[in-house]
Amino acid sequence: MPKLVLVRHGQSFWNLQNRFTGWVDVPLTEKGKEEAFKAGELLKDIRFKVAYTSALTRAQETLKIILEVIGLQIPIIKDQALNERHYGALQGLNKDRARQKYGAEIVHLWRRSYDIAPPEGESLKDTAARTIPFLERAILGDIYEGNDVLVVAHGNSLRSIIMYLEKLTPEEIIKVELDTGAAVVYELDQEGNIISKEVRK
């Protein structure tokens, strides 16, 4: 059965500084590169046929390291449909400063709710509106062909895909967190239904 593996990029400079990153193109830290290397080590048993990633450097850099560790040269498809959630007016802002500026409760709502967006930004629901059509038409197309697929993207773009695959409610997805460098390995049938799930980190 084909495998779909979702990997969150390694730690970025703004993850380290506790800042909202969104669509700002921030590179990996040394720790982030180490997390990507470890993810590659943990995925050596899977022979991916194709990889997907976002238009952002931190995801592309993570993917490059993973494939180098595994020793694979495969087609890579980059698309901004897989970009992180756009944080709008919060992008670049330290999360503690954001709580001081807007209030802890509203910042928590912006970050964790399903359908409440920050100013000028996207909610998780908005993010899903671009990730899920891309998943259905592109990524699952490879699964239906029987190929093992690697997707390296971002916390929220991947959470929206997890929500879809696992048929989670808006209340359930709020509790789902993905660590940097973590890999979620799904074994799927050729209709895209989950047979098994394993988290490697």
SSE blueprint:
Blueprint: E1 3-8, H1 13-16, H2 30-42, E2 50-53, H3 57-70, E3 76-78, H4 95-102, H5 104-112, H6 124-144, E4 149-153, H7 155-165, H8 170-173, E5 183-188, E6 194-200
Parallel strand pairs: 1-4, 2-3, 2-4
Antiparallel strand pairs: 1-5, 5-6
Helix pairs in contact: 2-3, 4-5, 6-7
Describe this structure in words.
The chain has helices spanning 13-16, 30-42, 57-70, 95-102, 104-112, 124-144, 155-165, 170-173, and strands at 3-8, 50-53, 76-78, 149-153, 183-188, 194-200. Helix 2 (30-42) crosses helix 3 (57-70), helix 4 (95-102) packs across helix 5 (104-112) and helix 6 packs across helix 7 (155-165). A hairpin with a 5-residue loop joins strand 5 (183-188) and strand 6 (194-200). Strands 3-2-4-1-5-6 form a 6-stranded mixed sheet. With 201 residues, it is α/β, with parallel strands linked by helices. The mean pLDDT is 96. The chain has 8 helices and 6 strands.
- Would you identify the CATH architecture? 3-Layer(aba) Sandwich
Strand adjacency order, main sheet: 3-2-4-1-5-6
**The CATH topology, please?**
Rossmann fold
Distance between the termini: 22 Å
Mean pLDDT, as a whole number? 96
| Biggest beta-sheet profile | 6 strands, mixed
**CATH class bucket:** Alpha Beta
Number of helices: 8
What's the helical proportion of residues?
40-55%
Question: Strand tally, please?
Answer: 6
Structural class: alpha/beta
- Strand percent estimate: 15-25%
Unreliable spans = none
Q: What series of H and E elements makes up the topology?
A: EHHEHEHHHEHHEE
Rg, Cα atoms, Å: 16 Å
Q: Sum up the overall morphology in one term.
A: globular
Number of domains: 1
CATH superfamily: Phosphoglycerate mutase-like
